[in-house]
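4.2 Preliminary Data

To establish feasibility before requesting continued support, the project team ran the inverse folding procedure on a target of 273 residues. The structure was first converted into the token representation described in Section 3, and no sequence information of any kind was made available to the design step. The complete token record follows.
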């Protein structure tokens, strides 16, 4: 048995050296600083010396370093070092995933690391933990981000109204002409009008859709109000624009000047009232 004792002693010393970073002294847990009362955004872990429990570095925080002062990133993060940082051994914690995720709280997070931080914060407050519901944005009802506006033009011209909506899943856009005739309600477009077309495309952003009502040539029958309607499995939204038929180009210019003046006055009143 005696020949084995030196070998066992050597293994024990080697294990201590491997588990602790260079520069670590004897461990005194009583000297360890307490963790924040509201928890650590990126979770906690043993320090480089394996003695105290410390907050892990969160996204955007410094990581790396030398010997006992070395700091490690939390779960799901990696320490990224540029050419300049390699000399100092320091880097920045960056999330390994770069896609949006949906949490069980119905909030869309920019990545899995942000969701994990929200979950840890919820647990620290005694709330229900936030877990991953699905990759990508959370489902949401449509929102009209750009409503159809006011169009003024003369008979025989080419005009259009546009509308943009966003939602998850991507909304479906439809157009209706609002009828002022009693009992007629709304007319689903394009109907049987030869001079009217509907166009739709995805974008410009993800889960966004853009649609147009195109009229050429414009006649008195096309003047009026048009409703842009967006719908998906979570809900619907709508907005109304108008096409005005005027007598001459001068009337078009005067209407544009009038609209511009109204916008200016609205902004002026908002700033100085």
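Position-by-position output of the design step:
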């Amino acid at each position: 048995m005696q020949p084995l004792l030196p070998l066992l002693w050597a293994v024990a010393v080697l294990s201590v050296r491997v588990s602790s970073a260079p520069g670590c002294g004897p461990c005194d847990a009583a000297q360890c600083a307490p963790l924040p009362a509201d928890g650590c955004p990126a979770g906690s872990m043993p320090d480089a010396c394996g003695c105290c429990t410390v907050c892990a570095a969160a996204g955007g925080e410094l990581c790396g370093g030398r010997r006992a002062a070395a700091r490690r990133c939390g779960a799901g993060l990696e320490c990224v070092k540029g050419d300049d940082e390699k000399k100092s051994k320091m880097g920045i914690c960056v999330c390994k995933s770069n896609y949006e995720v949906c949490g069980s709280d119905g909030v869309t997070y920019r990545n899995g690391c942000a969701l994990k931080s929200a979950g840890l914060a919820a647990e620290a407050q005694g709330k229900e933990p936030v877990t991953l519901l699905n990759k990508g944005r959370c489902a949401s009802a449509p929102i009209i981000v750009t409503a159809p506006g006011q169009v003024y033009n003369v008979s025989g011209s080419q005009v259009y109204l546009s509308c943009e909506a966003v939602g998850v899943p991507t909304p479906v856009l439809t157009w209706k002409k609002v009828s002022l005739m009693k009992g007629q309600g709304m007319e689903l477009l394009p109907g049987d009008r030869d001079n009217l077309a509907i166009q739709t495309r995805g974008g410009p952003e993800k889960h966004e859709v853009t649609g147009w009502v195109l009229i050429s040539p414009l006649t008195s029958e096309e003047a009026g109000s048009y409703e842009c309607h967006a719908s998906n499995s979570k809900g619907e939204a709508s907005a109304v624009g108008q096409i005005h038929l005027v007598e001459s180009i001068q009337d078009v210019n005067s209407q544009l000047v009038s609209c511009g003046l109204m916008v200016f006055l609205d902004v002026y009143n908002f700033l100085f009232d």
